[in-house]
Amino acid sequence: MKFITLILFLLFPLLGYTQIDVSKATTEVTKDLTLPTRKDAGKKELVGKYTFVVELDGSASTVAVKDSMGFGIDEDIVKKLSQAKGWKVAEVNGTPTRISYNLPIRLVLPKK
């Protein structure tokens, strides 16, 4: 539960811009991630940054890893962001516009 709360907190700034439902997007991106334990990673949390573009049709494209978490997690997050649909398209002066986002994600690792 702490993990989901943390992700919601990190995604909250996107709510006003493009995210249709923060909890739904968080669930999709973090669902079924295999996380290393704290002992395996040698730290309590992993931090990564991801970039993507919201297209005019509401899909995400050009998804890339800006700062890697490692442990195979980046590949899963990029795949899930690439497949995510239903992003709200940004508008500038009433005109739909493609927009680029930087998404930081911090994962608190399980103790065991």
Keywords:
TolA/TonB C-terminal domain; alpha+beta; 112 residues; single chain; 3-stranded antiparallel β-sheet; two-stranded antiparallel sheet; elongated
Walk me through what this model shows.
With 112 residues, the protein is of the alpha+beta class. It has helices at residues 2-11, 22-30, 38-41, 73-83, and strands at 45-54, 60-67, 90-92, 95-97, 99-108. The chain has one domain (2-108): TolA/TonB C-terminal domain (2-Layer Sandwich). A 3-stranded antiparallel β-sheet has the order 2-1-5. Strands 3-4 form a two-stranded antiparallel ribbon. β3 (90-92) and β4 (95-97) form a beta hairpin. The protein is elongated, with a radius of gyration of 14 Å. The chain starts with a helix and ends with a strand. The model is unreliable at 11-22 (pLDDT under 50).
How is this structure best summarized?
The protein is α+β, with helices and mostly antiparallel strands and 112 residues long.
List the helices and strands and how they pair.
Blueprint lengths: L1 H10 L10 H9 L7 H4 L3 E10 L5 E8 L5 H11 L6 E3 L2 E3 L1 E10 L4
Antiparallel strand pairs: 1-2, 1-5, 3-4
Helix pairs in contact: 1-2
Organism: Sphingobacterium hungaricum
Protein name: TonB protein C-terminal
